[in-house]
Design brief:
heterodimer, A: 246 residues, alpha/beta, Rossmann fold, Arc Repressor Mutant, subunit A, 8 helices, 12 strands, 36% helix, 20% strand, globular, B: 503 residues, Beta-Lactamase, Helix Hairpins, 3 domains, 13 helices, 55% helix, disordered N terminus
Chain lengths: 246, 503
């Protein structure tokens, strides 16, 4: 789990493509291979789940409307086993669907019909390394940020690229981890939604700020003692979010 | 809802009902009072005349008996009679008048009473006495060759009648007022369901389609409630069907478009491997595909605006910044509407970026961005390029003025160009979807603004969109302000953009 995609950037990244429309699947496979990805495609969620287990993809492109098991269920069942970024291919610009997909565990979305360039940009953004958030200690080894000194302290261990509560690893997705790193690098300061959207998702002026909100909610369920009343990752009304290590 | 109807009155339903009740009460009570007064007056007058007559005959017989007594003087006889208060006795005998009081004299006796008495008939008449209205009774006294008259004042009767009439008048007024109050209450109760209905209709008009009227036991209202709810049901069904249709259509068309776009992308990467004819064909496919995509997006957006289901994600936004973003995107965009062969390239950027003050509007960024892009594209395609873009404030409104270098728009066409699929020039020669300007006007209207076309002072066409200025009221409104970083962050962004555009 600790070994995330940015550790093998030299190889061509493996992309899982779950799409039931033969035309779209074939065309996307061709264009994504042109973009340098090793594409594993699946026409239904069951085949895609098998592919996730067998091939451990670095990225996933998931269509929401599928015959049989739908995209939402696929994302929910794949999330415990994979932290790889998931981009949803939404045919509907229905905001409801998009939020539901993000809440299920997706990292970003594109609306059909999209430009291949735009999809590549989204994929590239999600594969970037997290920022080096923490200053290196005097001894030059331990890059750790203690988020919560309670019993079983919550630690962001940047050297290992993971978050621990006590001895146990907290399972974060790649994007959740990067979001936490961004907030950690600015611990105690407020980061606006737009700033986060730009630094984590590489989205510009028209980016959908709900992406940030949903990810913050997801992150809270994993790092807060009471996600309903957050004390670590707090909302600063009208401005954005702030990480307050204790 | 039109208010034209057969029973449209200048007063309105409530007032009409109230006035009708008041008028009814007034009529009934006035009739009642009048008949009461007439009957009472008739009875009282009769009684009074009877009393006066009786009294006169009694007094007359006393006088006659007195005069029959030998040697009695008339004045003594009259003095011996004691008429009730307010009554006076007159005696006419041998051409001489005798009176029991100084108040009354021969003048008090009306001539017809005197005449009928002289002719031997007793009579009664109403006359003016020294003490107001009164009754004069004349009784001939043939036995003593005299005429007896008794004058009685009826001022007490007049007083009674005055009191009666004022009591009746007051009760009539009170009844009328009561009628009006009753009318008001009735009207209120009558109109209350209408208020409920109009409230529900207003809710439906703003898009709350699940609004229904509550059920009622009133058989008169149940029909209206039933048909109203059925109407809303039908309306909701239809709108949902339309929305579903738009969603289905969108899905059905988007999937093949996605395939086409991705496939063409693969081809474009290998453009060099194609023959020259192949390359030309590929360029055509690529360009037309983008136009098809744009048309589909515009159509679906128009459909959503039509159905009123376009959800506006409103946030306070700096309109100047939006304009800058749209200008920047137009410039760096691969949008074939801009890159297709056509009118001359736009003029230098410096002219396009006047100093824009911070003017905040409450809008859906994406939608207004699209509207602005459409305006700029329109200027590029039909107006020989943008000449100036200005953002100004006018009272509580903000206007974006887009001028172009083209030939302008004929006054007759200035409304028509906002129609769907209306475009300048022949179909074949001009690019564009024909939906851009109608999308502009409908988007802006959905935001409570307006869009129109006029002359640019520099000779080209001028397109103006007007949006209401957003005034922050100082209250913390989390949903709106939380999207807003403009104050702190946009300034550097704007500077960056300006540099980028200027380079």
């Amino acid at each position: 789990m600790a070994r995330w995609c940015w550790h093998h950037e030299a190889m061509s990244p493996r992309l899982l493509l779950l799409e039931d429309d033969d035309g779209i699947r074939t065309a996307l496979r061709l264009s994504m291979e042109d973009e340098g990805y090793e594409v594993v495609d699946a026409a239904n969620a069951e085949a895609a789940l098998a592919a996730v287990r067998a091939r451990a993809p670095d990225l996933m492109l998931v269509d929401l409307m599928l015959g049989g098991m739908d995209g939402f269920s696929f994302i929910r069942s794949v999330r415990p086993n994979s932290s790889a970024p998931i981009i949803v291919l939404s045919a509907r610009s229905d905001t409801h669907d998009i939020v539901a997909a993000l809440e299920a565990g997706a990292d970003d979305y594109v609306t059909k019909p999209f430009e291949v360039k735009e999809l590549s940009a989204r994929l590239r953004a999600l594969r970037r390394r997290p920022p080096v958030a923490l200053e290196i200690d005097a001894n030059g080894s331990s890059q750790q940020l203690v988020l919560d000194r309670g019993n079983g302290p919550l630690v962001l261990d940047e050297a290992a690229g993971l978050v621990r509560r006590g001895d146990r690893q907290v399972h974060l997705t790649v994007t959740e981890y990067r979001l936490l790193c961004e907030l950690g690098a600015a611990a105690g300061r407020v980061l606006s939604r737009r700033a986060l959207l730009e630094s984590v998702w590489d989205r510009g002026y028209f980016g959908d700020e709900r992406i940030v909100d949903v990810h913050v909610r997801r992150l809270r369920t994993k790092i807060e003692n009471d996600p309903g009343a957050p004390t670590l990752l707090v909302t600063v009304r009208g401005l954005g979010y702030r990480l307050d290590p204790r | 809802m039109t208010r034209a109807g057969r029973w449209r009155s200048p007063l309105g339903l409530r007032a009409t009902v109230m006035v009708s009740f008041a008028a009814g009460a007034l009529t009934v009570s006035a009739l009642l009072a009048l008949s009461t007064y007439v009957a009472a007056r008739h009875y009282l007058v009769d009684q009074r005349e009877l009393t006066a007559l009786r009294q006169a005959f009694v007094d007359a017989s006393v006088v006659r008996d007195g005069l029959l007594t030998a040697g009695a003087r008339e004045s003594d006889v009259i003095g011996s009679v004691s008429p009730p208060a307010g009554s006076d006795i007159l005696l006419y005998r041998d051409g001489q008048w005798f009176s029991s009081s100084l108040r009354e004299g021969s003048a008090s006796v009306p001539p017809e009473v005197l005449r009928s008495s002289l002719s031997g008939t007793a009579s009664l008449a109403w006359a003016r006495t020294s003490d107001g209205p009164g009754i004069v009774v004349g009784v001939p006294l043939p036995a003593v060759r005299g005429q007896f008259f008794e004058v009685s004042s009826t001022s007490e009767l007049a007083g009674t009648l005055t009191t009666l009439s004022s009591v009746l008048l007051i009760s009539a007024l009170v009844t009328t007022l009561g009628g009006a109050l009753l009318g008001r209450t009735a009207a209120r109760r009558l109109v209350a369901p209408l208020d409920t209905i109009s409230g529900a209709a207003a809710n439906i008009a703003i898009g709350k389609l699940d609004t229904r009227l509550p059920g009622t036991d009133d058989p008169d209202l149940a029909v209206i409630v039933g048909s109203f709810n059925a109407m809303v049901e039908t309306l909701q069904d239809r709108i949902e069907r339309d929305a579903r249709f738009a969603a289905d259509l969108s899905h059905e068309l988007r999937s093949p478009l996605t395939t086409l776009k991705a496939s063409v992308e693969v081809l474009v990467r290998r453009r060099d491997e194609l023959s020259e004819r192949g390359q030309r064909a590929l360029d055509l496919v690529d360009g037309e595909l983008e136009r098809l995509r744009q048309s589909l997006e515009d159509l679906l957006e128009l459909g959503r605006l039509d159905a009123g289901v376009a959800t506006l994600d409103l946030a306070p936004t700096d309109l100047g910044e939006l304009v800058r973003q749209a200008l920047a995107e137009r410039h760096h965009s691969t949008d074939p509407l801009v890159t297709l062969p056509g009118p001359a390239s736009p003029p230098g950027d410096a002219d396009l970026l006047p100093v824009l003050p911070v003017l905040t509007v409450l809008v859906d960024k994406g939608q207004i961005h699209r509207a602005l892009l459409n305006l700029f594209t329109n200027a590029d395609v039909h107006g020989a390029g943008l000449s100036a873009v200005t953002v100004v404030r006018a009272d509580d409104q903000v206007m974006v003025i887009v001028d172009d270098n083209g030939p302008g728009v004929a006054p007759a066409d200035r409304e028509r160009i906002f129609d769907r699929f209306a475009r300048a020039g022949s179909r074949g020669s001009r690019p564009g979807t024909g939906l851009g300007l109608s999308l502009v006007v409908e988007t802006v209207q959905a935001h409570g603004g307006a869009a129109w076309c006029s002359d640019s002072p520099s000779g080209g066409a001028r397109f103006v969109i007007r949006l209401p200025l957003f005034v922050r009221d100082g209250l913390d409104r989390p949903n709106e302000i939380s999207h807003e970083d403009v104050s702190g962050r946009d300034q550097p962004d704007a500077v960056e953009l300006e540099q980028e555009l200027g380079s």
